[in-house]
Amino acid sequence: MIVTLTANPSMDRTVSLDGALVRGSVHRASGSTTDPGGKGVNVARVISSAGKGCTAVLPGNGSDPLLAALGAIGVRYRAVPTLGAARINLTVSEPDGTTTKINEPGATVASDTVDGLFATILDLAAHAEWVVLSGSVPPGISAGWYGELVRAMANLECKVAVDTSDDPLTALAAGFPDTAPDLIKPNAEELAQLTGSDGDELERAAAAGDPSPTASAAAILVDRGAGAVLATLGAAGAVLVTADGAWSAIPPRITPRSTVGAGDSSLAGYILADLDGADGGGRLARAVAYGTAATALPGTQLPTPAHAREGDVTIRTLDQPIRA
In CATH, what is the architecture of 2-18+31-318? Predict the structure, then answer.
């Protein structure tokens, strides 16, 4: 079983435009969709669509449209009672794949809901192969909360993945090695934030065919205790660094339609490959295949195994990274 935690879930509304978004102008939408969202929910949707057992843990109540939407698409969930409904996130999608996102902060979570989420994760983690802690934390949850969860699961057999940003990410890294998960999935900007690198330079080097700066930055986190670092680089692909080696991936050329859920799909692809016993290169290939497939799909649509073509992903084994 896979368990995902989404402390700040959402209903994700995507509005598609026929032309470019112009600030201050009136636009007519060519279409719109609304789906259950939040990073952990997205991971659960992808894993569930692949036929693997997955439970999404989130705050919610019986009248919340989010829970009804999860049930409608067959995603198993465990909702911890809370007040109010999930936030609404808006994405405006342009024909060239450019997306503009406006995310609400989420309602303040009461202390009993925080305690309930913590207890539910520990209960399910005892029987899980992977636990995924994803996304932002709403008001009422401290920035160091993910680190507390990682510590609490240290003696369990499950693997733990964390995908977050800003204060929760820096607080997690500040506690390494005690709070270091089995997998951390930063993008270039987040990796730079943790290692003192330049995120733009990491992306430029990777786009020019040199992923070694990204690998060297990721190796810093592995040296500090992270089991693996999956660094996503957008159209330039991704880099995976573990204590056993480093790999880079170049995705196939596609026509981008939406970046919504691409990083979450990459994380889900990595976990699916790990469940199948894939090596480092194989885990990275499937991660990039799923992320690329998500980018080629419209709106908030997420990939299934039929969309992910890992044979089209180019994998290269890198030299042992030079620690920055």
Answer: 3-Layer(aba) Sandwich (3.40)
